[in-house]
Specification:
By secondary structure, this protein is mainly α. Helix content is 42%, strand content 9%. It has 3 helices and 2 strands, in the order E-E-H-H-H. It has a two-stranded antiparallel ribbon with strand order 1-2. A hairpin with a 7-residue loop joins strand 1 and strand 2. It is flat, with a radius of gyration of 17 Å.
């Protein structure tokens, strides 16, 4: 687990994962459904996929979120 290091663009520092792990345990123990439907992409995963694609024309999704 890392966090940005001040104003440095590519600088990061290591952090204790205890807070993250506690949040995940709370989510697991909650009533929030965590199972994804087969074959469906969430808007977040579709956006990540678009970001990894070739540079050039923006996709409809990336244009909508810009």
């Amino acid at each position: 687990m890392v966090k940005p290091l001040g104003d440095k663009q590519r600088g990061y520092e290591r952090v204790d994962p205890a807070e993250f792990v506690a949040g995940i345990k709370k989510l697991i123990n909650s009533a929030v459904p965590l199972k994804a439907e087969e074959g469906k992409q969430t808007p977040e995963s579709a956006l990540q996929h678009a970001k990894r694609g070739k540079k050039g024309k923006p996709t409809a999704e990336s244009a909508a979120t810009s």
